[in-house]
Write a structure and sequence with these properties.
This protein is α/β, with parallel strands linked by helices. The chain has 2 domains: 6-140, Response regulator (Rossmann fold), CATH 3.40.50.2300; 147-215, Winged helix-like DNA-binding domain superfamily/Winged helix DNA-binding domain (Arc Repressor Mutant, subunit A), CATH 1.10.10. 49% of the residues lie in helices and 14% in strands. Helix 7 (161-171) packs across helix 9 (187-201).
């Protein structure tokens, strides 16, 4: 059975960067750019009308923040992945993007050269994240371990021991296949556990699950 082409929506206001990304993605025989936008308004229209599996988005758009678009895309396309490629690596932008539904976050120039590899990792269940971005997330969790001052273990965890183990590996950015290898279970079993985690935490993406779990104090064991 032939591999399915990965469809990509590009949201980037820098024309040179957008052309470079578009050319690189379309040169891959298993990927295709199905739309591109340079403003928040244009992107909103495409998100509402196009079908796509990956949205690659910059946060600094001329008419508004890309975070609102992440939230919209996550709501209208819950099975799609959203990868932020931006110059903003500070804690506020990173955490806000993950909370909105981003499943990958890499910085321009330093980490965006292999964009097709990052997209493949994303669709394979991984979370491409720049090292400095990962540090921002860790700092956020350390500074705000529960987000509301509640003692982390004040409430019993809704997750089983195995689900908690998988959640910790997800938080480290590991793919479903990598998690299966570490725990010596099949990727299908990993997927089944992750669906249970999403249902119990009432979330729809990997980023949301990690964020919600951190708010509940489930990632501090």
């Amino acid at each position: 059975m032939p591999e399915k082409t990965i469809t990509v929506l590009l949201v980037e206001d820098d024309a040179e960067v957008r052309r470079r990304f578009e050319t690189t993605i379309n040169q891959d025989p298993m990927m295709k750019v199905v739309g591109f936008a340079s403003t928040k308004h244009e992107a909103q229209q495409l998100i509402e009308t196009l079908d796509f599996e990956v949205m690659v988005i910059d946060l600094g758009l001329p008419d508004g923040s890309g975070i609102d678009l992440i939230r919209l895309a996550n709501r209208l396309h819950p099975s799609s992945d959203i990868m932020v490629i931006t110059v903003y690596g500070d804690e506020q932008h990173v955490v806000s993007s993950i909370e909105a539904g981003a499943t990958g976050y890499i910085l321009k120039e330093a980490d965006s050269e292999d964009i097709t590899g990052q997209i493949r990792l994303l669709r394979g269940g991984g979370s491409p994240v720049s090292p400095s971005v990962a540090r921002s997330v860790l700092r956020a969790l350390q500074n705000h371990p529960t987000g509301n001052g509640i003692v982390p273990d004040a409430e019993p965890s809704p997750l089983s021991a195995r689900e908690t183990e998988i959640l910790h590996l997800l938080a480290k950015g590991m793919s479903f296949n990598e998690i299966g290898e570490i725990l010596t279970i099949s990727p299908h079993t990993v997927t089944a556990h992750i669906k249970k985690i999403y249902r119990k935490l009432q979330v729809h993406s990997r980023g949301e699950a990690v964020y919600e779990a951190s708010q509940m104090g489930l990632l501090h064991n």
